[in-house]
Amino acid sequence: MVVLQGLLPLLALYLSKLIIDQVVLSLQSSQVGNFYPVFILICLASFVSFVNSILLASSHYLNELHQQKIVDYVQNKIHDKSITVDLQYYENPQYYDILHLTQQEAPYRPGIIFTSLITLLQSNLSLIGLSSLLLLVNWQITLLLVGVSLPLLIIRLKFAQKLYQKWKKWLPQERIAVYFHSILIEENYAKELRLFNLGRYFKQKYQGIRQDIFQQKRRILLQRSLAESMSQSLITILLFVLLTYLVYQTYNNQLTVGSLVLYYQAFQRGQQVLQDAVRSLGTLYENSLFLEQFYDFLNLPNRVINPPNPQVLPIPLQRGITLENVQFHYPHSSRPVLENVSLQIKPGETIALVGENGAGKTTLVKLLCRLYDPKGGRILWDGVDLRAVNYWDLRQQISVVFQDFGRYHLTVRENIQLGNWDSLPSEGEIEQVAQATGIEEAIAQLPQKYDTILGTQFAEGNELSVGEWQKIAIARCFLRPASLLILDEPTSALDPQAEAEVLQQFHHLTQNTTALLISHRLSTVKLADRIVVLEGGRISEIGTHDQLIAHNGTYARLFHTQAQLYNLG
Ligand SMILES: Nc1ncnc2c1ncn2[C@@H]1O[C@H](COP(=O)(O)OP(=O)(O)OP(=O)(O)O)[C@@H](O)[C@H]1O
Fold first, then answer.
1. Of 236, 360, 410, 462, whose CB has the highest number of CB atoms within 10 Å?
2. Which residues cross the membrane (predicted)?
3. How far is the CA of 398 from the centre of ligand 1 (A)?
């Protein structure tokens, strides 16, 4: 279709020359001319125009469909990569740029690239056709057409390149502006924005960046407009000279009227097509930055990888999980977060992990789930190094409630079901875990019970309190038939009564399950079989609550401080 659409207008042009020449010929001859050949030519021209309009409508239709297909294809690639890319890319600002940019730009960039490519292809075909048509009759005019367009082409390309370079330079600034924009519009910040009256502050910051970019952009665009106006003036002057020359030749009978029309129109059309081509080239240039980012993103290498011949993960856990001199620092930071951590977790045992903020508790969880691999030492699952097993198999055996658990704006049922979605849990199982976390009463109050959509993003959504959301996350975690249950600050948002109930259920549910419980509330921790105290990335104490109190170390100090604060006695 692109080929036909590029070439058919030329055929129409040539037919109009033939029609005019035929009419002029019969006007010049004294006898009444034969109208039949002209009529055939008119029919042909009408047919060409008809086909052209059909092509135009069909190409619009196909273009829309293709746009969607391309966007979906690119999004699919991005989704595939996003769900497997190492967690470190989300936690590292250097990579966050490329990650965020690709994910943000993906919905519209490919469409622009596609349209530009089509326009470019069509323009090139038209140009080749026009040049051949003109070459057939007059090579000097063809040379003029190309020659005159050269300055415009050079100017456009030069400025496209300049803008492209600048755009690259502005990108980090643009990203900061996008960040300020998100603060101004997103729900997360809406309360503080109003309370601290931060709207004006962030608007100023946003506008400052945009203004700065605007000034720089204006300078370049002004230069481009000046250069383009000059080259456009040159074209106008040449068109004037050409028209005079062509009319003069027609006056002297060296050229037919049809050829005069053909040359003049071909020249004008050639200019138009060339401008389209140059514009598309500029757009392609600009968008190539996106492609660069897109491929960089797709090629991001993973550090956490599956071994070529993974060992079978022993299920159920029989000998336990062993941490042997585990050492860890985050990529792009040399500060050690875990140092020589050695621990034996017996099957069925509940271990509580305590320590001050930044002690490395969550990091240890990330290593257990193989979201990162240790930099030193190893973690063994029934004697098998975690690096030797398929990490999907491993994660299948672990259920976690993270501190920053997900709040899915789906129905209550789906929110819980996500914990074990592929085995299609029954209504009864879902209700059982909801009961275990004490959320079933709140669910009963919701308009559509388990079918109520949670959150405020969608129509008929119902918002929950933070504690209720947390209970839903715990229910999701309980639903998963895992060998290792990890709760990272599971009850931070729960009231004391709810906390006691959830922990009782947790205790009940983990009778035969190995569990790791992280909490700052030491009243919670008393339930555990053993308590591990982490200080500055090292294990400083291990024992039962009574042993550690008797030891009178860090745990005892923390416990007594909390007991005084909360009057726990
Ligand atoms: N993605 C990251 N990149 C670099 N450093 C990190 C990253 N995440 C955490 N850290 C650092 O690692 C240390 C341990 O963090 P971690 O989240 O494991 O602590 P924590 O004991 O769970 O703390 P809290 O009780 O506040 O949850 C902290 O000093 C933190 O600054």
1. 360
2. 34-57, 112-135, 141-159, 226-248
3. 21
Tell me if 105 sits within 8 A of 179, measured CB to CB.
Answer: no
C-beta 362 within 6 A of ligand 1 = yes
Nearby residues of 124 by Cβ (< 8 Å), 6 or more positions away? 6, 277
DSSP-assigned letters across all residues of 340-396: EEEEEE-TT-EEEEE-STTSSHHHHHHHHTTSS--SEEEEEETTEEGGGB-HHHHHH
Tell me what the mean pLDDT of segment 250-276 comes to: 82
Least confident of 35-49, 117-131, 460-474, 485-499: 485-499
Looking from the CA of residue 489, the nearest atom of ligand 1 is 27
Q: How far apart are CA 378 and CA 358, in angstroms?
A: 22
CA distances from 494 to 465, 498, 503 (A): 10, 6, 11
| pLDDT at residue number 510 | 72
CA of residue 358 to ligand 1 center, whole Å = 5
Token pair, residue 427, equals 């209504």
Residue-range domains of the chain with CATH: 2-297 (1.20.1560.10), 321-566 (3.40.50.300)
Q: Which residue has the tokens 């996500």?
A: 418
Residue 568 has pLDDT above 70, yes or no: no
ipTM for the complex shown: 0.97
Which residue puts its alpha carbon closest to atom 17 of ligand 1? 362
CA distance 164 to 158: 10
Q: What tokens does 194 get? A: 């109003």
Task: Specify whether the CB–CB gap between 313 and 394 falls below 8 A.
Answer: yes
